[in-house]
Design a protein that fits this description.
single chain; 14% strand; alpha/beta; Alpha/beta knot; globular; binds zinc ion; 6 helices
């Protein structure tokens, strides 16, 4: 496999996904709090999000100190802010009134890491916690389901946006994700690939 990266999608040129990129027309501002252990993870779905979404910020960190700047910015925002997280106090996101122009925060990490991030960042508890009910089964074949909802961060974010903005078509995001999964499966030796089916 070539190590040369496509300048647009930043995937290896041999796995360029540009042909599958289509913009999602949404107003939700998505903020991903990415655990440092996810940054170099080849199977991480978050790196697809900036290709397709108009308003997205990815902030890498774990402890409160890592998110000081982000918090200062969030305090200045007049928009409603939601945290996508199935905690005890979370409401199913479908019970929430559709809200355009909201800020949606998603934790990107294994279930255990995401939980740790929440414990280390009590300021996140100030936001309404929301959980989602996906309307399609996850296509996360290439990684062990580690979130409690068994979704990739991309799928969780996409369903979150869909609930806040029901008129938005999120299929470009899901299609892009499916294309990445298909490519990664195709790149596996046949005996390895069998385990994922
Ligand atoms: Zn590309």
């Amino acid at each position: 496999m070539s190590r040369h990266l496509c300048s647009k999608c930043q995937f290896p040129a041999s796995h360029c996904l540009c042909g599958h990129v289509e913009k999602v027309d949404c107003e939700t501002h998505l903020i991903i709090l990415q655990h440092p252990s996810e940054v170099k993870h080849a199977k991480n779905s978050v790196r697809l999000l900036p290709l397709s979404l108009p308003n997205i910020q990815i902030v890498v960190g774990e402890s409160e100190a890592d998110f000081v700047e982000l918090r200062a910015w969030l305090i200045t925002q007049k928009k409603p802010i939601y945290l996508l997280y199935p905690s005890d106090s979370s409401r199913d996101i479908s019970e929430t009134q559709a809200t355009e122009n909201a800020i949606l925060i998603v934790l990107d990490g294994t279930w255990r890491k995401a939980h740790k991030m929440l414990m280390l960042n009590p300021w996140l508890l100030a936001f309404t916690h929301l959980s989602i009910t996906p309307d399609r089964p996850s296509n996360y074949k290439i990684r062990k389901a580690s979130r409690s909802d068994s979704l990739s961060s991309l799928e969780a974010a996409a369903f979150g946006i869909k609930t806040l903005e029901p008129m938005v078509n999120i299929s470009p995001l899901l299609n892009l994700f499916d294309a990445m999964i298909a490519q990664q499966l195709a790149a596996m030796p046949a005996n390895v690939r069998k385990r994922y089916r």
